[in-house]
Specification:
Layout (H helix, E strand, L loop, with lengths): L4 H10 L8 E4 L23 H6 L17 E6 L10 E8 L14 E5 L2 E3 L3 E5 L10 E4 L8 H10 L3 E7 L6 H11 L10 E7 L6 E4 L2 H7 L22 H8 L4 H15 L7 H38 L4 E8 L8 H13 L2 E7 L23 H14 L1 H10 L4 E2 L5 H9 L5 E6 L10 E8 L6 E3 L3 E3 L7 H13 L5 E2 L3 E11 L2 E10 L7 E3 L2 E13 L5 E13 L1 H10 L1 E9 L2 E11 L4 E11 L2
Length: 618
């Protein structure tokens, strides 16, 4: 099995656990002035024994105190394991008129969504534009008057904070030297058109070429010199006997095509037995063996590329903003690996990633004779059939690029030689796309494919670009874990949610020239929270997750806070008037940061999410 050191680094990044610093629970107050801290349980506990420590929940701090039964408010900090989930079925849709322009005035009721031809209720709807994702400054106060920052300074810094992350994936596994030369030349003219808030990373299907997200255009241009073909199945100049292509091997092994087998056997007769037709039985065995070997190697090459595409999606999923992947490839044939293709589409869709694909071959004509630099050695009796297979294979290579693009609401750039224009369009901010979500009813846990269709209620002749299906899960998710994953996914989104009215404020105190204490204050409207009556009290559990990202979108610190509420009616009435504020603090260095706050109401399963830009001067 190939090793993926980059994959281990991304996984480590996504599963890092960060304990909060000193965090305090504040009682009823206004949104700007902290109130006295709520009392914790006064019950002292002896330190746990080594055996008891081994039995503790891995998600809880070993030093956390257990609350008393009559506590009204108990706040507990816990390590945060921010990951990305795959849960609801999301369908990203782009609608264009007959002039190719994006239609921008559609609403939820304008869409119809069908799962296996059965209409579905659209439970989630949003439209995304560059303006709707713009980052706003957080309301910030500082205890150091000499470190005060003006709102104008914060606004200027916010415009430079990353809002879009573009991952350019080069398929160096399948590209030829001619492909890479053309692509490299086109990509060098790309970076001057990027916005100050764009961050670009580069990946390769081989895993041997990678550049982290950056705004340094010179570094991006220099890194392109590392782009060269890196096939995993050998180079040109080697010919098997019989010579079987991946397309033909797929016909023989997966589709039981007797004609494809007969052609391979005839090639074996010519190359191994000098045209002796009495050796047809041995030639058939050679054809079967060769096709199995070619198919296995081709599948391994495709799986290898898929794993690195998946790792790039994971890294993009962890970036706090709009996410675009540009996949530059000559295309390839997935054979029986369409399930893996659908899985990539699922991962990208749930992470809000649009995949734009570019056919690196540009405008090409069907090549009947194969690679001129390494021509095939076909016999006169089979050359006509094998030329037909080569043309069919060249056409089939487009399918995976088309599926990845249209399945995620992206664009498929092909049959054009202006690759620089294709790259420019691929990395540009989309003018508008719609995201539809639904929860399948009575979904069987059988792993089967479900066809999707999106249409409009009007009869206008618009073109609709959307994914064409998804696969049912093979296991039932745990409801508790699903709720945790919902929070973790929201942390790495830039979308603001308003189910629960929440205000985000920040404070910072500079300790010295190289360190500061950043506090995040979350103010709730208690009336909007769903409570249940339990033993005469108002009970609910709030989960507050906070993440702080630097000016390249890298995760710096963060954590989760769980607040168990068992409020008496008098306390509930008081907090309903004044609200409830929670404060969490972190040690950071001076710099420009984006703060992402996510709140989940456990009883009502409501979500709130806020973004804010913070500047701590040097």
């Amino acid at each position: 099995m190939p090793q993926f050191p980059f994959a281990r680094r991304v996984l480590s990044f996504l599963t890092m656990t960060v304990l909060f610093g000193s965090c305090s629970l504040l009682h009823a107050q206004n949104s700007s002035a902290p109130a006295p801290a709520a009392p914790r349980s006064a019950t002292a506990q002896a330190p746990p024994t080594q055996e008891e420590n081994g039995k503790q929940d891995a998600t809880k701090s070993p030093n956390a105190q257990q609350p008393a039964e009559n506590s009204e408010l108990v706040s507990q900090d816990s390590p945060a394991t921010f990951k990305v989930r795959v849960n609801l079925v999301l369908v990203r849709v782009v609608v264009r008129d007959n002039q190719g322009k994006v239609v921008t005035n559609l609403r939820r009721e304008d869409f119809q969504l069908f799962d296996n031809r059965k209409p579905q209720a659209i439970t989630y709807f949003s439209s995304e534009t560059p303006e709707s994702q713009a980052l706003r400054p957080a309301t910030t106060v500082t205890a150091n008057e000499e470190s005060a920052v003006t709102p104008e300074e914060v606004q200027t810094a916010a415009k430079k904070l990353p809002q879009r992350f573009v991952g350019v994936m080069f398929d160096d596994v399948h590209m030829s030297m001619q492909d890479t030369t053309v692509v490299r030349d086109a990509a060098t003219r790309l970076f001057g058109a990027l916005a100050p808030s764009d961050r670009v990373a580069m990946f390769s299907a081989s895993g041997q070429f990678h550049l982290q997200f950056t705004a340094d255009h010179d570094q991006l241009a220099k890194s392109l010199y590392s782009l060269v073909p890196r096939p995993t199945t050998g180079g040109a100049g080697f010919h098997d006997c019989p010579e079987v292509t991946y397309y033909q091997a797929d016909l023989i092994q997966n589709k039981s095509d007797s004609q494809a087998l007969a052609i391979a056997a005839e090639d074996a007769v010519q190359c191994a037995f000098n045209g002796d037709e009495t050796k047809i039985a041995q030639a058939n065995q050679m054809a079967q063996s060769a096709s199995m070997r070619v198919l296995t190697l081709g599948d391994q090459e495709t799986e290898y590329a898929y794993r690195h595409i998946e790792e790039a999606i994971k890294q993009l999923s962890a970036m706090p903003g709009q996410r675009v992947m540009v996949f530059v490839s000559p295309g390839f044939i997935p054979s029986t690996l369409w399930l893996e293709t659908s899985d990539l589409i699922d991962r990208a869709s749930h992470a809000g990633i649009v995949i734009n694909t570019i056919d690196a071959r540009g405008l090409y004509t069907d090549d009947l004779l194969g690679d001129i630099a390494d021509p095939p050695r076909d016999s006169p009796r089979t050359s006509g059939f094998k030329s037909t297979y080569r043309v069919a294979a060249q056409m089939a290579q487009d399918q995976v690029l088309e599926q990845l693009a249209y399945g995620t609401g992206g664009t498929f750039f092909h049959n054009r030689n202006d690759l620089d224009e294709g790259l420019r369009e691929a990395v540009a901010a989309p003018p508008l796309s719609y995201l539809l979500g639904f929860s399948p009813q009575n979904l069987k846990v059988d792993g089967r494919f479900h066809g999707l269709k999106v249409s409009l209620t009007s009869k206008q002749k618009y073109s609709i670009q959307a994914r064409n299906g998804y696969y049912a899960p093979k296991t039932i998710p745990n409801p508790v874990e699903a709720a945790k994953q919902e929070i973790r996914e929201a942390i790495f989104s830039q979308e603001e949610l308003h189910d629960v009215p929440v205000d985000l404020q920040t404070q910072f105190f500079k300790k010295d020239a190289t360190s500061a204490r950043l506090s995040v204050l979350t103010h709730f409207d208690v009336k909007s929270i769903h409570f249940r009556k339990e033993a005469g009290r108002n009970a609910d559990i709030l989960t507050i997750a906070t993440a702080i990202f630097d000016d390249n979108g890298n995760f710096v610190t963060g954590g989760e806070k769980t607040v168990q509420m068992k409020l008496l009616d008098t306390t509930y009435n008081r907090l309903s008037r004044s609200g409830l504020t929670l404060k969490s603090s972190y040690d950071v260095k001076p710099g420009t940061y984006m703060v992402r706050l996510v709140v989940r109401d456990g009883e009502g399963s409501q979500m709130a999410a806020r973004n804010g830009a913070v500047v701590i001067p040097n």
